[in-house]
Design a protein that fits this description.
The chain is an alpha/beta fold. It folds into 3 domains: about 160 residues, Substrate Binding Domain Of Dnak, Chain:A, Domain 2, CATH 1.20.1270.30; about 150 residues, 3-Layer(aba) Sandwich (Rossmann fold); about 220 residues, Rossmann fold, CATH 3.40.50. The protein has 25 helices and 16 strands. A 6-stranded parallel sheet has the order 6-5-4-7-8-9. Helix 4 packs antiparallel against helix 8, helix 8 packs antiparallel against helix 9 and helix 18 packs parallel to helix 25. The chain is globular and about 65 Å long. It binds FE(4)-NI(1)-S(5) cluster. FE(4)-NI(1)-S(5) cluster binds next to helix 12, helix 19 and helix 23. The site of FE(4)-NI(1)-S(5) cluster has 14 residues, from helix 12, helix 19 and helix 23.
Length: about 625
């Protein structure tokens, strides 16, 4: 099983699944081999009913679709649509959070403003006067202004103004400053439909504008408004991996993305009446554990343990110990439905946007949030006695971690307790103790051994004095391996990074939250630029991003907004564009001359890490910074 995962708990559970003849994502992946070559190369078009059309990659058969579109147009249109879908996912999440902020302002649903300081700061950015107004008044005005940015037709997204001036000017010059969030998604869908935009370069420009509407729009709105509503995270301890499930407690696994429900489930699980009910049913208590990004959300703010990342969702059910799995939206495998039916586990869908055939649906209404949460927990508790102890197999593995780093909390530590400043971070980069910083983020994918890409790449960067920030399922991979503990610095970090981690007491890998919280990385980069000494734009910084096991369209949108913001971004497997050499060259070379960032596709995580290190060193040289303080380990 080793080749499927490097995580011990996962390997154990795969053995259990095999014994019990339970089908998993790896089985289905194998059954799909070999996968469609036209699809992989991006040479299949299904956009209109004259098709589906295919282009022959060997140059012998047709080189155009029925309408005359060629490989460049095929691949660009398809990729732009992936960006639009990813942007839509993050942004629809942001919209729901904005609605919830409005409810909180109106005193409905049991939500409260937990970070009034951030409320006022963000409101000021949106041009809302905050003097002598109550939190509720400000929140109401802010929610309306934010909601208006989704349907905005002209103008610029407010948060885009957080980017350095030079970057904003570049976006305006290129015509890719995002106008309205929904507008960019709709325009991408329009321009990529039959017979509209044919120029692959022009399509990719719009894809970048759409992605910017995600990073500096939908995702940033999600992050900032969630901080206002649920509190801006601060460093917090917890545990991770399937071993956090308990034999003698009601286990409720929350899986999906939006913390609106999971926040309330956490609150409801502390309700004395429900605790009492759990005891009546023979359980010692109620354990809540998360999967995927919803896990990261409640980990960051409440220290709720994490059961696992994307590829572990089926394995959590296979433990037989989950009394209810509550799902909302995104990254929920349809396979959970049949798998849950092999156990007593209740799978409960909660979002009208994501229903599953034959699955119990308990609509989560923000207006009655706490009541919905209690109803759902009650179902889980009532289900506990049906658990079959004979079929309950929880692996022992679990690991300590520290999460909860944000733009506000993290780098300010580096300035010491009393001085909140990014100066020491910039200085550490300037004097070469830190070679640079890299965001390692994103999914798992059965096409790569589970967690292997994340861990190999991250460890290679750490030993070369690169500070790593992480989010999403990558963060969960790092956590399981112990990289989110301060002591990991002794084992994995190069001497410069270790020195900093030791002095400040932070782990060498900083967990910044869910995938929408990649926006925290953008905000952090903006702070680094404005602190000074490292150039006047993102493209000058010795930084990069990586998604070493990507699978989701959301990852494509994230990659695009980092590239459009001026960063080098690595993906292990290429986008489905290999059928067009021009598109490949645009993405991996030419974009750098246009926006300062570009994509790097490299399946080998060590080679990828070295290419990233070489990039950081090139950026350092351009800034005329000192050589990295310690001999390069990679040379
Ligand atoms: Ni991100 Fe979160 Fe994980 Fe990938 Fe899915 S959970 S939003 S898409 S799989 S990192």
């Amino acid at each position: 099983m080793k080749e499927k995962s490097v995580d011990k708990a996962t390997v154990k559970m795969l053995q259990v699944a095999k014994q019990e003849r339970l089908e998993t994502i790896w089985d289905r992946w194998e059954a799909q081999q070999p996968q469609c070559g036209f699809g992989q190369l991006g040479l299949c078009c299904r956009i209109c009913n004259m098709g589906p059309c295919r282009i022959d990659p060997f140059g012998k058969g047709p080189q155009r679709g029925v309408c005359g579109a060629d490989a460049d147009t095929f691949t660009a249109r398809h990729l732009a649509r992936m960006v639009a879908a990813g942007t839509a996912a993050h942004s629809d999440h942001g919209r729901d959070v904005a609605h919830t902020l409005l409810l909180a302002a109106e005193g409905k649903g049991g939500y409260r403003i937990k970070d009034p300081v951030k409320l006022r700061k963000v409101a000021a950015e949106f041009g809302i006067g905050t003097d002598s107004k109550s939190d509720a008044e400000i929140a109401k005005a802010l929610a309306h202004k934010v909601l208006a940015e989704f349907g905005q037709q002209e103008g610029e997204l407010t948060f885009a103004h957080r980017a350095p001036k030079a970057r904003q000017e570049l976006w305006r010059r290129l015509g890719i400053m995002p106008r309205g969030i929904d507008r960019e998604v709709v325009e991408t869908m329009h321009r990529t439909t039959m017979g509209v935009d044919t120029d692959y370069y022009n399509i990719i420009l719009q894809a970048m504008r759409t992605a910017l509407a995600d990073g500096w729009g939908g995702s940033m709105i999600s992050t900032e408004l969630q901080d206002i509503l649920f509190g801006t995270p601060t460093p917090i301890r917890s545990r991770v991996n399937l071993g956090v499930l308990k034999r003698d407690e009601v286990n409720v696994v929350v899986h999906g993305h939006e913390p609106l429900l999971s926040e309330m489930l956490v609150a409801a699980s502390r309700d004395p009446e429900l605790q009492q009910l759990a005891r009546q049913k023979g359980a010692k208590g109620i354990t809540i554990a998360g999967i995927c990004c919803t896990a990261n959300e409640i980990l960051m703010r409440h220290g709720i343990p994490i059961a696992g990342n994307f590829l572990q969702q089926e394995l959590a059910l296979a433990t037989g110990a989950v009394d209810a799995m509550i799902v909302d939206v995104q990254c929920i495998m349809p396979a959970l439905v049949s798998l849950s039916q092999c156990f007593h586990t209740k799978l409960i869908a909660t979002s009208p946007k994501a229903k599953f055939p034959n699955v119990e649906f308990v609509e989560f209404k923000e207006e009655h949030a706490i009541d919905s949460a209690k109803e759902i927990l009650r179902i889980a508790i009532e289900n506990f006695p049906k658990r079959e102890p004979r079929r309950t197999q929880i692996p022992d593995e679990s690991m300590d971690l520290i999460a909860g780093f944000t733009t506000e909390s993290v780098f300010r530590f580096l300035g010491g307790r009393y001085r909140a400043t990014f100066r020491p971070l910039n200085d550490a980069i300037i004097d070469g103790r830190l070679r640079g910083a890299v965001g390692v983020v994103g999914c798992n994918n059965p096409n790569t051994p589970h967690d292997w890409g994340h861990l190999t790449l991250t460890q290679e960067l750490l030993k070369n004095d690169v500070l790593v920030v992480t989010s999403g399922c990558s963060a969960i991979a790092d956590a399981k391996c112990g990289l989110l503990r301060p002591e990991a610095a002794y084992k994995y970090a190069g001497p410069g990074l270790r020195e900093i981690c030791e002095a400040v007491g932070i782990p060498p890998v900083l967990h910044v939250g869910a995938c929408v919280d990649n926006s925290r990385i953008l905000t952090t980069l903006a702070e680094i630029v404005s602190e000074g000494g490292l150039g006047e734009d993102f493209a000058k910084l010795p930084v990069a991003g990586s998604a070493p096991e990507w699978m989701s369209e959301k990852a494509v949108a994230i990659g695009f907004y980092f590239v459009a913001s001026g960063a080098l971004v690595h993906f292990n497997t290429p986008f489905p564009v290999l059928g067009s050499p021009k598109m490949y060259k645009l993405l991996t070379e030419d974009l750098e001359k246009i926006v300062g960032g570009k994509f790097l596709f490299e399946p080998d995580p060590i080679k990828a890490a070295r290419a990233i290190l070489a990039h950081l060193d090139r950026k350092r040289a351009e800034l005329k910074l000192r050589e990295p303080m310690y001999t390069p380990v990679y040379a």
